[in-house]
Design goal:
The structure is a homodimer.
Chain A: H1 11-22, H2 26-37, E1 42-43, H3 46-49, H4 54-67, E2 70-75, E3 78-83, H5 85-104
Antiparallel strand pairs in A: 1-3, 2-3
The structure holds a DNA duplex (30 and 30 nucleotides).
DNA sequence: TATTTATATTGCAATATTACGATATTAAAT
DNA sequence: ATTTAATATCGTAATATTGCAATATAAATA
């Protein structure tokens, strides 16, 4: 054991879990926040922003990219990273959906 | 190594990461969706809804509770679980914040 | 009080994640 | 052509997560 039983769940559930999991590390939250703060795509500089080694940061960037939360394009000898909106909209939609449901049936129990 | 360097990040970053991580598994997404679907708190029955053993489900419920995404109160010999709104609002706020920022500076690059 | 029912905990094996040093790659600059 | 700079990959150790059988706990019911 140890492996998640992805095939027992719906595609949507697995997709949301992948997105959430990608944000389940403070370094990756920090990367998203940094990309947001600097107003634009950032070519280089991400490594210097984080208290982690270059290979570790590279790995975290790869995970965010695989999950569809950021995208990176080659820009000379550095890479230009920025937030990938569709990915973020998808997970944001999940929370909005929950929030709307909760608003409708407030305090019915508990 | 292998342990996350939580002390290198802000409290807010760690908090958001814990919330996201708790949702980083399809079974836990399924639990949240189920609690939402049934309109109210559910006493029992969660185990039967998931394609996992009772101990495994119990463990996932514990993680959601620790992260502050659900709450459970004892109700006779079963336990009544429901969504914990403050936890969900916190992570929802993060995505709204991102979305607002992105709306302001659309297509500046990439 | 014994049994049933619902949930939690323990212990453990399989797998995944985190982190980093060493090394590779690739494009710019000299 | 070499060197420099930025990023990726490999290898590996430490730790965390996933899943379940077995067992414990605690309340309801017979």
């Amino acid at each position: 054991m140890g492996a998640t039983k992805t095939d027992h769940f719906t595609e949507s559930q697995n997709e949301l879990a992948i997105l959430a999991k990608a944000l389940g590390h403070p370094a990756r939250i920090a990367i998203i926040e940094y990309l947001l703060k600097v107003d634009a795509c950032i070519c280089g500089d991400i490594v210097n922003e984080l208290p982690l080694s270059q290979p570790t940061v590279s790995q975290h960037l790869k995970e965010l990219k695989n999950a569809g939360l950021i995208k990176g394009s080659i820009e000379g000898n550095s890479i230009c990273y920025c937030i990938n909106e569709p990915g973020l909209e998808k997970i944001k939609g999940f929370f909005e959906h929950i929030s709307n449901h909760l608003a409708k049936k407030r305090n019915e129990c508990c």
